[in-house]
Amino acid sequence: MTTPVPFTSDDTARLAAALDQAVADGATPGGVIALGTLGDAPRFLTSGRIADELGDAAPGADTVYDIASLTKVVATWPLVCQAIDAELLTQAAPVREFLPPIDGPAPSGEATIEQLLTHTAGLRAATRLDHYRGTHQPLHELLCREPLEAEPPAEHRYVNRGYILLGLALAHTHRRPLDELARALWDDLGMTGTTYGPVARGPRVAPTDRRLPGAPRIWGQAHDDNAALLGGVAGHAGVFSTARDLARYAAHLIDPATRLHGWLRASALPFAPIEAGLDRGLSWICAPGNVAYHHGFTGTSLYLAPTAGRYLAICTNAVYHGEARRRIAPLRALALKTVTAT
Prior knowledge:
Layout: H1 9-24, E1 30-37, E2 43-48, E3 65-66, H2 71-85, H3 113-117, H4 139-144, H5 161-174, H6 178-188, E4 195-196, H7 225-229, E5 239-241, H8 243-253, H9 259-267, E6 272-275, E7 278-280, E8 285-287, E9 291-296, E10 300-305, E11 310-316, H10 329-340
């Protein structure tokens, strides 16, 4: 049985100072850190403000953030695990078997569910769905017919299009839209503040960047271009959530009494090396100390240490300042070190 290792007052002080520093450095207008241990209520650290457009309004546990690629582990990964349990998907089978029929060769469609989850399918790295505008073929067919860049199982290469295919496969096998599947999952977990976009812009929603000088900010719409082209609903991006909901989700994942925990244990085993000390599991990055984590491009992160009964989530809209997003790297590094320490 897991014996939780509580965060210390020094831990929280260092994290609060790092979040304050990120705001002071202009890395993000503000942000929220949720941290907690198994069986205890989460604690929320906040700093800064949501956005200039909202004046001095401070972010909080219920501020809604575009979580970008955390979609992969908050929506697609658990839904794939559910589908494997229900024998609707098979981990070792090609993804084309779970999509509408495709006549003829489909090289990318031969990638297995496992290879897509672990970013080892050898798919094209750059995802530009705008190149398919004006075509009449269905998206799954266009993606599956693409040539591979490497024969699978290939070296790890982070690719969004694999999760787009997984989202399409989930919708097809269930005969239900991806956002409906995700809504049912989140409702079961009590994650009422989590949804696929678009969401109505307002004082609780953190905007992201503006693509052109003087243009309105992206606000309540998916920041990711490809997710936006798909109407905001995709397997790789498009989900909005709150620090409170990410804490609730993380608590389920580290709880040995839940099915989610069983999936996490199986998914946090190393499948493919990323770099020294880091491996890719099924969706998750695996770090020393039995830690699993994932980042979102907009400035979000989720860290899980099930052995220590700890979790930590970061919610920021760091893309608000464009390239300043890289300045949250020290905060992310400290978060990983803190959740790992025992």
